[in-house]
Amino acid sequence: MIAYKKREIKENPYNAIVVFVINIILFAALGYFVVVNFFGNARTVGHSMNNTLMDGDVVLINQFVYQLRNPKRYDVIVFKPKVETVSEKYIKRIIGLPGETVQIIDGRVYIDGHALEDDVITTRIYNAGLANEPIKLGDDEYFVLGDNRNSSDDSRYANIGNVRMREIIGKAWLVVYPFKDFGGTAANQIEEETEAK
Fold first, then answer.
1. Among 33, 86, 88, 96, who pairs with 143 as Cys (CB 3.0-4.6 Å)?
2. pTM (2 decimals)?
3. E runs forming strands in the chain
C-alpha cells in the first residue's frame, strides 16, 4: 500500500496586509482621478462672500452639474474673470436668471419689477451700481452678487457685469480647507433652508 503524505499549505501572514495596502492605493488613485477630472478648486479671496465663505476658504467645484441642469437662483458659482490678466476665479451667488430684468431699488433686489422676497441675504444694499437702472439679462446671462452685499465686486460693476454661461466653471460644492469647516459649505446649508421655505 502506498502512503501519501499530506501537504501542508502555509499561509504568508503578510498577504492580507499587502492586499489591504494595494486596495488603499487603488482607491486613493481612483479618488484622485475623480477629483482632478470632475472637480476643480478655488480659494475665496477677500470678504465678498462673508459669512457663507470666508477669506482663504478653499472649495471644491462641481464642474459637471451644469451639464445636467441649468444654474438656479441662489447657486453659489465659480466663474472666470472677464479680464485675462486677472488669474483668480470669482465666487458669487446667482440672483438673476436669463431673460429676467434685475434692478436694485431702495436697497432691495427686484426681479421683473417684483421685490425678491425669499432672498437668502436680507442686508440692505447701499450701492446699486449698474443695477440702479433695470438690467435686462440675455439668454445665457446671470446676475450675481456677493453675500457680503456692501463689500463685493459683482454684477453691479462693469469689471464683472453679467456672467455668461460659458464663463461659469461650476458650482461651489464643498469646503476642503480649513479642515475645521470640511464636509460642507454654508452656501449649501443656506440653499437647503431656502428650498425648504
1. 96
2. 0.77
3. 39-43, 58-62, 76-79, 90-96, 101-105, 108-111, 114-115, 135-136, 141-145, 163-164, 168-177
